[in-house]
Amino acid sequence: MYTMNRIFFALALGVLATAPSAFSAAFSVGDVFASIGGGIVEVRSQNGTFVATLNTTLGGYTTGSTFDQAGNFYVTGFSSNVVSKFDSTGTLVNSNWAGGIAFNESIVFNAAGDAYIGNAGSNSVRKVNSSGTTLFDYTGMGSNTDWIDLASDQTTLFYSDESGTIRRWDLVSNTPLSNFAVAGDSFYAKRVRPNGDLMAAAGSGNVYRYNSASVFAGVGHLRWPVVRTRRAW
Predict the structure, then answer these.
(1) 148 lies in some domain
(2) DSSP category for residue 14
(3) Which of 6, 12, 160, 186 is buried most deeply by CB count within 10 Å?
């Protein structure tokens, strides 16, 4: 992610199957967590009303983010090379929850509570446990791994380096799979939907949709290139 004049929005992944009542009254399912730089994430309701500001205290670019099953919020610090953790009330728990990853840019939790962290600094993805401790580094992935998401099978990782190719990696065998999609655009944030469709926001402002068989299923257009919101299943 070397073009810095974008607004990056956080996505709560499919593993966040918790009912809204489990979260702090400060936040609601559907709230938008917008990484706006300066170490800041701004929270707004679905209608755009300001809710809160979350501050990592580290400055620099804040990028991709996610939630764990307990409602804790995690945001990558592209400039600081760490992931910061907030609890479900928006209180900063640990500004350096996981570190040592150059230009980390996206994060996703699996159903077991471990997280995968993508980055723009190497062709690798780091797996960490719920404490942020490194468990494994997947390497030799053929490109940077700026933007990642996890398939419902919990073993297939989708990733892209802001080129026109969405790649796949088998997390069990630690081997590459065939490319998922190729387009004449630059893929950024992506989400695997519960039905297996993959939505990918692109640098042009387009959002592409592919079904689980990699078949192109449509395209929409947004004013901003990357839009992600907090949601439950």
Answers:
(1) yes
(2) T
(3) 160
Per-residue model confidence as pLDDT tens digits over 32-53: 999 999 999 999 998 999 999 9
Amino acid found at 47:
N
Contact 202, 213 (CB under 8 A): no
Cα 180 to Cα 164: distance, rounded to the nearest angstrom: 11
CA dist 74 and 109 (Å) reads: 10
Q: Which domain holds residue 124?
A: 8-221
1 part of a folded domain: no
Q: Can you read off the two tokens belonging to residue 159?
A: 């990733």
Distance CA 60, CA 8 (A): 13
pTM: 0.85
pLDDT in tens, 2-31: 333 333 333 332 223 344 334 455 788 889
Secondary structure element (H or E) that encloses residue 93, with its range: strand 92-99
Q: Which residue has the tokens 């404490």?
A: 131
Q: How many other C-beta atoms can be found within 10 angstroms of the C-beta atom of residue 123? A: 16
